[in-house]
Amino acid sequence: MAVRLADSTELANRLRPLLLMLNRHLRREAHAEGITGGQAALLAQIRHHPNLGVRELAAREGISAPSMTRYLDRLERAGLIVRTRSPEDARRIRIALTPKGARVLRSVRRRRTAWLSERLDGLSAAEQRAVEAAIEPLGRLLVEEDR
User: Fold this and answer.
1) Whole-prediction pTM value?
2) Residues 141, 143: Cα–Cα separation, whole Å
3) Average pLDDT over residues 113-121
4) Which of helix, strand or coil describes residue 122?
5) 37-48 and 65-77 are packed helices; what angle lies between their axes, rounded to 10 degrees?
6) Is the pLDDT reported for residue 2 higher than 80?
7) How far apart are CA 74 and CA 97, in angstroms?
8) How many Å apart are CA 102 and CA 92, to the nearest integer?
9) Among 61, 146, 44, 59, residue whose Cα is nearest residue 95
């Protein structure tokens, strides 16, 4: 008997709520470290792209530069980032994680990995293989978005 494949709209309707719930649970792990999921994502962007300015960071996050400045103000007040003038161009502001910011980001990552690992341990070997097989195609969905 042939297995019927779901059409893309049906598949999207089944996948979307699961991804949203997974994201919600993973974002909650950041709250245990005293930051929001959005702040954790912003710290990760800063860590991975240390040479981005405020405008570039805002564009990546899909928000205005003034909004990004307010977010950065909060992170700086919390001691998670530091802003300095670029030695090459005094008009540019460099944004970097502080040691505290790096620690918080590592802790959030560890908490999220532990939460997800615990749930994956509850799956059968076949289910774990199915999740593993889905990682690459799901990653390609994001690559398409970046184009």
Assistant:
1) 0.80
2) 6
3) 97
4) coil
5) 100
6) no
7) 13
8) 22
9) 44
